[in-house]
Amino acid sequence: MNAPAYNFAYLDEQTKRMIRRAILKAIAIPGYQVPFASREMPMPYGWGTGGVQVTAAILGPQDVLKVIDQGSDDTTNAISIRKFFGKTAGVATTTATSDATVIQTRHRIPEAPLHAGQVLVYQVPIPEPLRFLEPRETETRRMHALAEYGLMHVKLYEDIARFGHIATSYAYPVKVNARYVMDPSPTPKFDNPKMDNCPALQLFGAGREKRIYAIPPHTDVVSLDFEDHPFTRYRFDAPCALCGAGDSYLDEIVTDDKGGRMFVCSDTDYCESRQLAGHRGSESAAPHKERAHG
Amino acid sequence: MYVAVKGGERAIENAHRLLAHERRGDRDVPELSLAQIAEQLSLGVDRVMTEGSLYDRELAALAIKQARGDLIEAIFLVRAFRATLPRFGATEPVNTGEMQVRRRISSTFKDIPGGQILGPTFDYTHRLLDPQLADGFVPEQPETSEARQAATPRVTDILGRDGLIEPSPAADADAPVGDLTREPLSFPADRDLRLQNLARADEGFLLALGYSSQRGYGRNHPFAGEIRFGEVEVEFFAEDAGFAVALGSIELTECQMVNQFKGSATEAPCFTRGYGLAFGQSERKTMSMALVDRSLRARELGEEVIAPAQDEEFVMSHSDNVQATGFVEHLKLPHYVDFQSELGLLRKLRKEFAEAKAPDMQEAAE
Amino acid sequence: MTTVAELPAGFADKVLSAQSTFRSVMDAMARPGSVQRVTASVGAPDGMMRGAAAIALTLFDHDTPIWLDAAMSATPDVAKWLKFHASAPVVADSSIASFALIGDAKNLPALDRFAFGSNEYPDRSTTLILQVESLTQGPTFEVKGPGIDGTALLQATLQPRDLFQRLTINEALFPRGIDVVLVHDDLIVAIPRTTRLVASGA
Fold this sequence. Notes:
The structure holds three protein chains of three kinds.
Chain A: H1 13-28, E1 34-35, H2 49-58, E2 64-69, H3 76-89, E3 92-93, E4 102-106, E5 119-123, H4 137-145, H5 150-163, E6 174-176, E7 180-182, H6 192-195, E8 201-206, E9 211-215, E10 221-223, E11 233-236, E12 250-254, E13 261-265, H7 268-276, E14 290-293
Parallel strand pairs in A: 2-3, 2-4, 4-5, 5-8
Antiparallel strand pairs in A: 1-9, 6-7, 6-10, 8-9, 11-14, 12-13
Helix pairs in contact in A: 1-2
Chain B: H1 8-24, H2 34-40, H3 42-52, H4 57-66, H5 71-82, E1 100-105, H6 155-161, H7 191-200, H8 203-214, E2 223-238, E3 243-262, E4 270-279, H9 283-296, H10 312-318, H11 321-329, H12 336-365
Antiparallel strand pairs in B: 1-2, 2-3, 3-4
Chain C: H1 14-30, E1 36-37, H2 50-59, E2 66-68, H3 77-86, E3 99-102, E4 127-131, E5 140-144, E6 151-155, H4 163-167, H5 169-173, E7 179-184, E8 187-191, E9 196-201
Parallel strand pairs in C: 2-3, 3-4, 4-7
Antiparallel strand pairs in C: 1-8, 5-6, 5-9, 7-8
Helix pairs in contact in C: 1-2
């Protein structure tokens, strides 16, 4: 039987070249979704195959890789992807945001500010921000070509008419470099401001949908809004119960079946670093409410 | 004191060990061999080869064994392996007209040159569970006779001689062969890419779409012109040698549907074609594929696109079961972060709703 | 004429050299105006700088039609070397090229001879790889755009002298346009279609 032998970082060189060319175009046209011939990866579509292909195409032996899912290095899918690269590329891995040169993420942007020289690779399920308004690729491609984004504004405005707010709390659309409307992947809108003028390079890979896009460092990224309904960043009312951070995105932990809740940092590296530095939270399970914060 | 959940790595390792244990089942029951799967579950192997896009019975059998009989999981395993294989080029087009036919039926003519050959088929079995098969049943040897030397021309070629069916598009020898596994798909897609997509497509998805076209969602009046199953030779043009070299033979099933005629002021009416091809004996797949291929030709034949089976973007974007199962099943992955966002927003909206309602209630009470 | 056996070598280590070269090009593209270095050890045919040769081996293959300018096609060596090491087809029509290799940048053809891509597919454009006199000495060019924190200063001796003026078409064409990679020896600088000249001086 043909026992397979795999290349450095799994992908063959021809595939890497194809992905690398797509990445360069993506950087040159910020926010534009470059079609690429996504390969079948040894993990399911929808589980990070796009991010994995982008990471595999850029990763070298000098890199230090961090993989997070929901902000955490310890979720099963993050572990699985980290192990994959540990095995196929033999790269060093870390959980410390500041030590990583390449960070692959699903659904979060780390709390610690990113720096120049880092690359943040997002796993993207549906790269097309207009997809839920217009299911046809032929149509959405035309809309991007003409920068015809009225449909998106109508949708957001309908939210306001119905709920009094823009009722999009994650995958909140942004405009990149004043041209392309882009899906930031299903990150909470809390993270949107971190994309703007970020010193790190941000790359987005959608494997099943076969698209790669990018935000170069120091690029304008604006969350869509209206003058009378400006974008607001979701914020929690109480600090993290473990580290006391008041500026981080929190996971809600159900502590009992009597309404008990506690809130802790979703970014585990951020939380642990703060605890190591001596910061302490209440560790109490007091329920608290959220409020919008400008 | 709250301690965050850790130990995902251990959990994964333990889960894999448990999976291997469950896969093996009761260790007192003899283990399945790949030969047993390849020989006795051969239609499952054919499906895995077809939708996995790789003709290798042994690997397909291994995939079925590894996947515990879950054929979509097996197809996924084969695809992931296939993706890493180097490409040397494309073979010469296979000639199904010269197939060593093991089964061949036409529903359009009572008799055809080369004859109707029923072959191995469930078609006229009565679907009564057979208790004999439960244990140690030895079937009779099949009837044999001299292999017939008579040619078996394709029914569509017979119709084509009289111009009754549209000509099959002639292959342009210089045009590169489209390959949607190497080039990102864009729409509209040409028929080569559509057929490649349908050949890899989920059998159940095509079955349902083909069925919907029969029930009136884009009806195109099909007749099963011919279904044939047998062996064909595969040849590869070797540039160094300057001629085509035989690589071996493969089993294929081909279905040619003969569909509603079309015509115009300038063109005489003639039947149209729908085409299906699959590895091994895959009749349901090729028939469904031929129905959907014909439906997807709506644009080219000037028909109004009104039904799902005619909508190439809809069909091609959703036909691949490896893609579909990945995305459906990814809902198992943690979504705490986006769920938390939605939860926060919903609480806020409900609170505002309650506050807005409160004065109304007061007014009503007054 | 050079035989295949006499062709200069490609990368010493195909996999890791391509990776490190790609990272240099990616960093260059992500930080327009910044000077990046190609560190991989690479052979190059006559007339081709090391940086250009490394980029070619990193990004070219049989899916990328390549256009060569008169300087690059003066002898068949470059085309042969590309075919042997990258299997890249050399085409006569610059408007279908994925990449154009410009050895004599003074005689760079008008930019509209290359592919700009379409508004639907702006990525289907030609990337120019331009060999220039210096990327460390010469006049200064102050540039801004995505990838640049404020403005960036590039000191370079560029041909054609009016390169940045010519690239102003990118402004009107966007999202269509031309991306440029400048090469001198093993140094590279990228000027993607989003980069704008703010000022230039001696």
